Amino acid sequence: MKAIHVKSLSHTVKMIDLPKGVEHIYPYIGNGCTTFECPYIFATEDTIYVDEEGLFHETVGGFMIVNSKINPLLGNALIIGTDEEGGATDVKMTVEEVEKSIIWLTDEECEIWREHALNTPPQLIVFPTEKDV
User: Within 13 Å and on the Cβ side, how many CA atoms surround 61?
Assistant: First the structure.
């Protein structure tokens, strides 16, 4: 399966052949990843996979997605296509499209974000129901 590997430390983006199965995602994310999350889905329905516990590991670079409302992403990532049923498939984006959608962060910016995220208490947002209005 075609996927795009984003390597934060070296600021590189390349197309790879990823074997099917979630167990193959962890080594590409690296840095001791044992759980991943998918915080962003591109307009092409390609999905980005990152270390869910990336804030708790040694910072190894990071990036942001242009024009997205998601927080900075620390560490490496994989971008994998998604089919109509939510299954993994070949990525639709090109390496060039991904490169244009990334803003690389400096080590200092990564550390500032990491410290901020770890020191900000979680917030609960409650939306009013019809009964409350």
Answer: 16
Q: What is the largest CA-CA distance in the chain?
A: 53
Per the structure block, which two tokens stand in for 67? 């024009």
Q: What is the residue-wise DSSP string for 35-96? A: -EEEEEE-TTS-EEEEETTGGGSPP--EEEETT--SPPEES-EEEEEE-TTS-EE---S-HH
CA-CA distance, 61 to 121, in Å (whole number)? 24
- pLDDT digit string, tens, across residues 102-121: 999 999 999 999 999 999 88
3, amino acid identity: A
Q: Which of 74, 19, 83, 86 is nearest to 50 (CA)?
A: 74
Q: Which DSSP letter does residue 107 get?
A: H
pLDDT digit string (tens) for 38-55?
A: 999 999 999 999 999 988
Q: CB-side exposure of 69: number of CA atoms within 13 Å? A: 0
